[in-house]
Design goal:
Blueprint (H helix, E strand, L loop, with lengths): L11 H19 L6 E2 L14 E2 L3 E2 L2 H17 L3 H24 L13 H20 L18
Antiparallel strand pairs: 1-2, 2-3
Helix pairs in contact: 1-2, 1-3, 2-3, 3-4
Length: 156
């Protein structure tokens, strides 16, 4: 009688969700690190008055950093199953595409820019959205398995 073997291997889509989630966690934490985030003293809770910039490029606020942390936690948790990982990548990608369109339409100097966003954020959101959707569609949801010594015949 054989005992079922439970595999701990992750499928490619699960690995992608884990990497994307871990990256979001890292970015969320770095958004609170002075030096990595320039003009850190101007970091606001939310809104277009925050002039803090992650890596001196991407405008961030406390809310923006918390969103990154939340997306990170979701990605790490979603990596538990292939179905959740795919949903995370597709859904997250769609959210980032909506955020890209929002960033293109919103007047950057008004209260409507509550996240806050700048042009660099807008184009990053486009890349994130398309990249996450591409990963969710293209990557397999199953773990590739190989048989040991397949095709080698019997040894005598």
């Amino acid at each position: 009688m054989s005992t079922p073997v439970r595999s701990t291997a992750r499928s490619p889509v699960q690995l992608a969700a884990l990497v994307v989630g871990a990256t979001f966690l890292l970015v969320g934490v770095l958004g609170f690190v002075p030096g990595v985030t320039t003009d850190y003293a101007s970091l606001e809770w939310a809104g277009h008055h925050s002039h803090a910039q992650l890596f001196g490029i991407f405008t961030v606020s406390v809310l923006h950093n918390i969103v990154h942390l939340a997306f990170g936690v979701l990605g790490v948790l979603a990596a538990a199953t292939a179905g959740l990982a795919r949903t995370y990548l597709l859904g997250g990608g769609l959210i980032y595409l909506v955020l890209w369109v929002y960033g293109l339409l919103v007047d950057k100097d008004t209260a409507a820019n509550f996240v806050p966003l700048n042009t660099a954020d807008d184009w990053l959101h486009l890349g994130l959205g398309l990249g996450m959707i591409a990963l969710g569609i293209a990557l397999p949801r199953v773990v590739a398995t190989t048989r040991p010594n397949a095709g080698q015949g019997r040894r005598r």
